[in-house]
């Protein structure tokens, strides 16, 4: 049996996630108010960001950046900037 949530990203009633996919308070907020469809949209963006910016999920700063981008995308409707990123010189 699927659950329905009012998806704040899509601004409509939609099928909710089956379980909390992200830890903590943000994860609960996502579970309560983000649909499967919106989560799928984010997953595509997340993959592009990780690849484009060569993010390392073992790096706390990279995870923090990605979490901020996720929150902005899902709750503020802000598309992450992917094009034209210049990595810092190593």
TrEMBL record:
InterPro entries: Fe_traffick_prot_YggX (IPR007457), Fe_traffick_prot_YggX_sf (IPR036766)
Superkingdom: Bacteria
GO biological process, one term: cellular response to oxidative stress
GO CC annotation, single: cytosol
Keywords: Iron
Gene Ontology molecular function: iron ion binding
NCBIfam families referenced in this protein's UniProt entry, alphabetically: PRK05408.1 (NF003817)
The protein's role, per its UniProt record: Could be a mediator in iron transactions between iron acquisition and iron-requiring processes, such as synthesis and/or repair of Fe-S clusters in biosynthetic enzymes. Necessary to maintain high levels of aconitase under oxidative stress.
Subunit structure: Monomer.
Family designation: Belongs to the Fe(2+)-trafficking protein family.
Name the record gives this protein: Probable Fe(2+)-trafficking protein
Source organism per UniProt: Gallaecimonas xiamenensis 3-C-1
Lineage: Bacteria, Pseudomonadati, Pseudomonadota, Gammaproteobacteria, Enterobacterales
